[in-house]
Amino acid sequence: MAANxxxxxxxxxxxxxxxxxxxxxxxxxxxxxxxxxFFSLLGPSGSGKTTCLRLIAGxxxxxxxxxxLHGQEVAGVPPxxxxxxxxxxxxxxxPHMSVGENVAYGLMIRKVPKDERNRRVREMLDLVRLSxxxxxxxxxxxxxxxxxxxxxxxxxxxxxxxxxxxxxxxxDLKLRQQMQVELxxxxxxxxxxxxxxxxxQEEALTMSDRLAVFNxxxxxxxxxxxxxYERPTTEFVAGFVGTSNLLKGDTATRxxxxxxxxxxxxxxxxxxxxxxxxxxxxxxxxxxxKEIIYLGMHNKYLVSLDNGDELTVVQQNLDAxxxxxxxxxxxxxxxxxxxxxxxPLNPAGGSK
Amino acid sequence: MxxxxxxxRSPLALKLAAGCSLLFLHVPLCIIILYAFTTEEAAFTFPxxxxxxxxxxxxxxxxxxxxxxxxxxxVATTATLVAMILGTLLSLALYRSNFFGRDAISLLVIxxxxxxxxxxxxxxxxxISLTGxxxxxxxxxIGHATFCIVTVYNNVIARLRRTAHSQVEASMDLGASTWQTxxxxxxxxxxxxxxxxxxxAFALSFDEVIVTTFTAGQQRTLPIWIFDQLTRPRxxxxxxxxxxxxxxxxxIPILLSYRLTASTRE
Lengths: 352, 266
Known about the structure:
Number of helices of chain B: 12
CATH topology of the largest domain in chain A: Rossmann fold
CATH superfamily of the largest domain in chain A: P-loop containing nucleotide triphosphate hydrolases
Structural class of chain B: mainly alpha
Number of strands of chain B: 0
CATH architecture of the largest domain in chain A: 3-Layer(aba) Sandwich
Strand content of chain A: 25-35%
Number of strands of chain A: 18
Strand order of the largest sheet of chain A: 6-7-8-3-9-10
Mean pLDDT of chain B: 85
Strand content of chain B: under 5%
Largest sheet of chain B: none
CATH class of the largest domain in chain B: Mainly Alpha
Radius of gyration of chain B: 23 Å
Oligomer: heterodimer
Order of helices and strands of chain B: HHHHHHHHHHHH
């Protein structure tokens, strides 16, 4: 799961910047992506993740810094001379060609003999479960099928790195979840480095070996999904990847013994009835239930602390009756969490 | 007024008006076609006393007619080819870029078709005279190409704007050079628009009179031949037959170009 340092580096960005006029789309980005990794670039729209991908593909040229593909500097190398292929957000299928011709395009350009071309196209269509669809037109396919054609068209060239620009964005939720699983399985099967751009934190957590969280053109944190979720380093990451309660200033001092801001995930906090005896190793706080939101699998509680701060707590609905009946709105409760669950954030809080 | 508009008579009146406009536009054409078959030589009466196809064979024997017809076809074909190449290059240059003065350039491209032909004609004549060149087949082609480029440019740039640019990126991403991307992706995408623009250009060039009179030397294109025929009243039916040819040669490409871009206008 964790990045293996002995693996060779597939893509390396060193102090890469891309400015559009005054806008710093990508700002001093440092990044190493290892061979065979499923790496996600996660961030809100306009955070620079797509520009970063386009810099690697060669559709954009960096303002400064260097980009290495398998150790080779690629500044000034046009897209057609880079050993990477892209799956576009709008799929960019060629409407005047059949599915087979679309997938064969890269091989045709590389003058691969026709027999081999046909064989590889068939293999690829089998891989993405579109066997027998060679002669269809892209317009005759559903969104999910077009997505698979785009994937096959990129993979058939056996690139060392595959770039995916929000490829699942246009699909509906069920299909998207299904494709997440499939995409991950395909990646493990072909063993190619996948660089995956998404704004969906759940998607990034589900699929990636590692991910980089982007904000305002800068990388806020790089790590495995568990590292990023459990130990966010900045306020932005704590809020963008999942939800977090932030304890600041006086509240932090009173509860944690230090003024440094800490983040704590809602599911790490336990709710106890007043007077219930709590393990002394736990951090404790008193509050009042302000709101209960029933979410089926779990309940979300908004709890006001005595000093007015508000914490979000999520508890699994293990027992429907007790969960709903035992505590209600306006009830006083005790909150407690393990000291280690509250994670200190960098005071800088990333670049703003 | 409002109540008038709401009565059922108004649409009928509109229909009549539309019908009249159509008649107004097309009755003269019908008359030309009809009198290409009349048995009268000079003075036309309605209805024609009889119908004949003798003028067709008479026209077929006129060497000067054939000369002019071929000249017109050659000029229109050459001007169209020049326009297709230059118009495509212009639209490729302008559709993606966004620089200061882009709109001005785009206006300059379209200007020749908006400019009165007489201005284009006299400007070209002065310019060509300045270079000391003779007025030949090629000067006519140059004159026609000025406005033919516009129709090609307009058609192609409209199609390019509707073509997703990611297709071009995808092609480059899959290893295709700029030329290969043009050949395999852009050209098939713009093909019908290019052809439609070319056909309109051909039709425009084929019946052009004004610019041609300024840029031609001794050559007579078909429209100029017809124009000269007006001074020979006894040749009137033969001239009508020639006009029918012009209608046919220009109508067919216009119809085809309309069909080709039908999907664009949906």
